[in-house]
Amino acid sequence: MIIDAKDMILGRLSSYAAKQLLLGNKVDVINCEECVISGRKHAIINEYIKRLHRKAPTKAPYFYRRPDMLVKRTIRGMIPFKRARGRDAYKNIKCHIGVPENLKNEKALSVESAGAEKLHSADYLKIKDVCRAVGVK
């Protein structure tokens, strides 16, 4: 199963992908950098920056700065990762920045219930902007 994350709400997309993983499907998420988070721009960025500087850099938790890893970590938070069933499901997820060559000719699924047009306000921020603000290289 291939899911196109372009203009999709991160939380809704993640919960759909997590459900598919727990059902036993292999999931590829493409265009992770185009996914959106709802809320005011400065509030979202400040929250992620504060989350990065919570503890000493050598201690957990580690927060990813790359868009594909950030989406993958969000999906991980929605599966029971501490159990064997969740760890096995997590092995079946792959997140990509853009569209990789081997998936160019495949049909990508767009989740109807996760679209950014469902947001009542126009306040949202793309994942690539959040990652750029927290220091992606």
How would you briefly describe this protein structure?
By secondary structure, the chain is α/β, with parallel strands linked by helices. The protein is built from 5 helices and 5 strands; from the N terminus they run βαββαααββα.
Keywords:
137 residues, 5 strands, 5 helices, Ribosomal Protein L13p, Chain: A, two-stranded antiparallel ribbon, alpha/beta, 36% helix
Provide an overview of this structure.
The protein has helices spanning 10-22, 41-52, 67-76, 84-90, 127-134, and strands at residues 2-4, 27-30, 36-38, 93-95, 124-126. It starts with a strand and ends with a helix. The protein has a single domain, classed as Ribosomal protein L13 (Ribosomal Protein L13p, Chain: A), CATH 3.90.1180.10. It has 137 residues and is an alpha/beta fold.
**Secondary structure tally: strands:** 5
Low-confidence stretches: none
Examine the secondary-structure arrangement and name the CATH architecture: Alpha-Beta Complex
Q: Could you say what the CATH topology is called?
A: Ribosomal Protein L13p, Chain: A
Which structural class matches the secondary elements? alpha/beta
